[in-house]
Amino acid sequence: MFFKSKFLLFLLLQCSMSSRAPPKALLQDMVVPPRQLFGPGPSNMADSIAETQSKNLLGHLHPEFVQIMGDVRLGLQYIFKTENKYTFAVSGTGHSGMECAMVNLLERGDRFLVVEIGLWGQRAADLANRMGIEVKKISAPHGKAVPVEDIRKAIAEYKPNLVFVCQGDSSTGVAQPLETIGDACREHNALFLVDTVASLGGTPFDADALKVDCVYSATQKVLNAPPGLAPISFSDRAIEKIRNRKQRVASFYFDALELGNYWGCDGELKRYHHTAPISTVYALRAALSAIAKEGIDESIQRHKDNAQVLYSSLKKYGLEPFVEDENLRLPCLTTVKVPEGVDWKDVAGKMMTNGVEIAGGLGATVGKIWRIGTFGINSNKTKIENVVELLSKSIDETRSKL
Ligand code: PMP
Predict the structure, then answer these.
(1) How confident is the model at residue 16 (pLDDT cuts 50, 70, 90)?
(2) Which of 122, 240, 262, 380 has a CA between 20 and 30 Å from the CA of residue 151?
């Protein structure tokens, strides 16, 4: 009797387990159409980077992979222009760099000054609010930067422990000048944190000369690698603050000292922390190799020159950049005013049917602008001229529908 009922139960379980059919979608091949990515990111992958994605995996503690991690650290020091020992890549997208910086550099009772020129300052303030940190914001109207004098004054008055600046705000296309902010931070015992997710490699940045204490970026913009790693660098001052924290860093995954050890920054025996995304690290190594071959300053100059190509192409078709002061435009991401009576979404949709992505605004700029990213290999004269020609054609086509 006992065996009979057990057998029935077994049959019942078998039936209920096998009754679920596999999802039909997964029985089909994945569809990935070709696309020219001229939005705010991700950008297109260069062939030399894409090739790394089919290489066999190595164990994350194998000596050959440890060597690759070491190469990546050297490449990141080169593009951030820093001697910082604690220079590595956080496993995660740009946001993980932001969270890593903030959970390590802020603790309860600290004051945080945020320079807000668009969405990314708001995001930094939001993260700090979630951590229970007091935040003060100093803002510029969208399309403008905050005058450096005002930032220096705010540092002197508010006496923050940490100052956040986004160098290139991808929601507005503004490049915030950074000169002398680091000096004011040193004078008033604050740390200086800079977001370079949308700007690194596309506009001048020198972590050590600017006296930056922490800088993070991402792989999917100028570097032309897949999203998934956030390059980051901490100065000795920043590491000292982290070592002397009153409370332990609340996140294990983002603990900078643990990550620094895993990436071989502290010269100590390497401990297991997590499993690095091996293929994405290969891609970053290839991306850094491409920049090393071109030269970081040459890459920056190319983005600057091709931004001029973009501005004159826009002019040719009667289109205007959103950021009026040319000196405050981010060379690798240009925001363009949507002309009166034009539906930005229809135009972007039309471009997409031609295999080209550009994006609309983000946050407060939705409906007002388009965002054209010309990152890395997409910073190319012919490609840019073609994109602007298609933009103008798409505007005309959507207009004639009205
Ligand atoms: N900061 C800036 C300036 C960005 O442009 C972005 C992404 N667009 C991020 C941070 C966040 O990066 P991710 O989407 O890779 O998390």
Answers:
(1) low
(2) 240
Model confidence pLDDT, tens digit, residues 317-335: 999 999 999 999 999 999 9
Task: Tell me how far the alpha carbon of residue 3 is from its chain's centroid.
Answer: 61
In this structure, whether the domain defined by 47-293 belongs to CATH 3.40.640.10 is answered with yes
Pairing of strands 191-195, 162-166: parallel
Q: Cβ contacts of residue 354 below 8 Å, gap of 6+?
A: 390, 394
- Domain 47-293 and domain 296-400 have a common topology: no
3-state secondary structure string, 296-323? Answer: HHHHHHHHHHHHHHHHHHHHHCCCCECC
- Note whether 40 and 373 are within 8 A (CB): yes
Q: Whose CA is nearest to atom 11 of ligand 1?
A: 94
The answer to whether 40 and 270 have CB atoms below 8 angstroms apart is: no
Model pLDDT for residues 149-179, shown as the tens digit of each residue: 999 999 999 999 999 999 999 999 999 999 9
For residue 120, give the nearest of 179, 184, 190, 194 by alpha carbon.
194
The vertex-70 CA angle with 45 and 102, nearest 5°, equals: 75
**What is the pLDDT averaged over residues 287-312?**
98
- Please work out whether the CB of residue 121 comes within 6 Å of at least one atom of ligand 1: no
What kind of fold does domain 296-400 have according to CATH?
Answer: Aspartate Aminotransferase, domain 1 (3.90.1150)
Query: What is d(CA 135, CA 215) in angstroms, rounded to the nearest whole number?
Result: 19
For 132-155, b/e burial (b = at least 16 CB within 10 A) is ebbbebbebebbbbbebeebbebb
Residue 174 to residue 207: CA distance in whole angstroms: 19
The answer to whether 73 is annotated as binding is no
* Distances 269 to 69, 85, 331, 358 between C-alpha atoms, Å: 15, 15, 42, 46
Tracing tokens 């569809």 back to the chain, one arrives at 31
- The pLDDT score that the predictor gives to residue 363 is 85
Instruction: Give residue 279's identity as a one-letter amino acid code.
Output: S
177 lines ligand 1 (CB under 6 A): no
Average pLDDT for 380-386 = 98
Q: Within 10 Å of residue 32's Cβ, how many Cβ atoms?
A: 6
Domain ranges within the chain, ordered by starting residue = 47-293, 296-400
- CB of 170 shorter than 6 A to ligand 1: yes
Amino acid, single-letter form, for residue 78? Y
